[in-house]
């Protein structure tokens, strides 16, 4: 079955950087939209960034200019480069795969999810 496995989370200080990776099995990262979501304790899971099959990207306003989504189709891997991290970025981060070639940042657009990787940013 389709599998998504995230890695790269950790604890950093405010202003630091992390790069998350998501290895995807049995699903084409080139033909489908791929996204990153996050969920902080007590909050709803929210869309952070998406990359569509044509390479277009979209970001939540809260991370624009700080986060960059990318993919390596040859490695079936999705990335999220996170710079200038803030304490409010603390959350569990999830990789997600959509069935369509184009997606937005809504949860219902995504069919498959990883188990998540924790990101903690201290002030």
Determine the strand fraction and express it as a percent band. Answer: over 45%
Count, helices: 0
Relative helix content:
under 10%
Low-pLDDT sequence parts? none
Helix-strand string: EEEEEEEEEEE
Write out key terms for the chains shown.
123 residues, mainly beta, 11 strands, four-stranded antiparallel beta sheet
Give an overview of the whole structure.
The chain contains no helices and eleven strands. By secondary structure, it is mainly β. Strand 5 (46-51) and strand 6 form a beta hairpin. It is globular and about 40 Å long. The mean pLDDT is 97.
Quick summary of this structure?
The chain has no helices and 11 strands.
Provide the fold topology:
Blueprint: E1 3-7, E2 10-13, E3 18-25, E4 34-39, E5 46-51, E6 57-59, E7 67-72, E8 77-82, E9 91-98, E10 110-113, E11 117-122
């Amino acid at each position: 079955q389709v599998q998504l496995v995230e890695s790269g989370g950790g604890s950093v200080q405010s202003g630091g950087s992390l790069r998350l990776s998501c290895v995807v099995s049995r699903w084409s990262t080139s033909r489908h939209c791929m996204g990153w979501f996050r969920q902080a304790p007590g909050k709803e899971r929210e869309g952070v960034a998406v990359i569509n099959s044509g390479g277009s990207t979209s970001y939540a306003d809260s991370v624009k200019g700080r986060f960059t989504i990318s993919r390596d189709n040859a490695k079936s891997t999705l990335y999220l480069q996170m710079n200038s991290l803030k304490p409010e970025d603390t959350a569990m981060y999830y990789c997600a795969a959509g069935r369509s070639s184009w997606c937005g940042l809504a949860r219902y657009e995504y069919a498959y999810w990883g188990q998540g990787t924790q990101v903690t940013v201290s002030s």
